[in-house]
Amino acid sequence: MTNLLRAAPPPRLVRAGRPGPAGVAARLRPLRPLRLLAWPLYLAALAWYVRGNGLPSANDVVFCWLIGALLTAAVHSGHGPRGFLLVLRDWVPVMAAVWTYSLLRGYGAHTPWAPHWLPQLDADQVLGFGRTWTVRLQHALYTPGSPHWYDYAAVTVYLSHFFLVFVILAVLWRRDHARYVRLLTCYLVLTFAGFATYLLYPADPPWLVAQEGHLPEVTRVVSAVLTDIGLPQAQSVFENGSQFANDVAAMPSLHSAYPAMLLFFFWPTARPWLRALLVAYPLAMAFTLVYGAEHFIVDILAGWTYAAVVVFGLRWFHSRRTGRAHERADLAGCR
What we know:
mainly alpha, 15 helices, 69% helix
């Protein structure tokens, strides 16, 4: 884990008046106990937080813990202040951008126009041959108070939304900084495109449409399962009642958009086994969201469309800019 989350080792350059690698190792030797305690202390702090506050779910909170993990890895690796500076340089601005989105997302719940629900409901009833797939799946598969294995699987898939992209970004930051920047750009553009749509087109999810009497009664499966297994604090993933909550941010579904973004981003260079996972993840998330009454099918299709436009659009822009740079270099070489 530390190999994935620590910054690349510093170049082996010896400057005048500064110790070489052997001297640095000797200077850091007294700090070895702290290095060995770094991960146990971090994990203990995370466990204490989860016990008192529930699972971290808001993007800004998840980012704080991720930065903490990267700083912990820097301590464990023995890179010293350089490792701290690399983490802070590359991740604090990202955390600020994500926190800004989280805050704006909450304000986006108070638009002057009413949320939309009828177009999504009509489209889903067409796709479901007169009955939405949320109602069909819950009537066929869900047993209140008795979760099945696929209910637990749905909870796992749903919760992955809150951390998986950040973990992948951290791995890329360690292994391939250029791809880290490109994926981060896709993530931020996709996130703020979704936010802009929430402002212009607030939309109710199926569970809220059912509460308003426009659908047969349905259950928020993830929430219900978390309660059934005795983890009420895990309800924090829904941010109910917080300044970040926005119950009418259903179109597009960013829960479905992020898995599709990973699929489109990594597909060209992925091995066959990874391609299978890249396809399975968006499909599993789509099933979870429809079965769990979190999104209509059209919300998911919109999320996939947004992801495709962002990833392929930025890839085209990057290749075009790279091509122009090569042309300028060729012209300069001919002079």
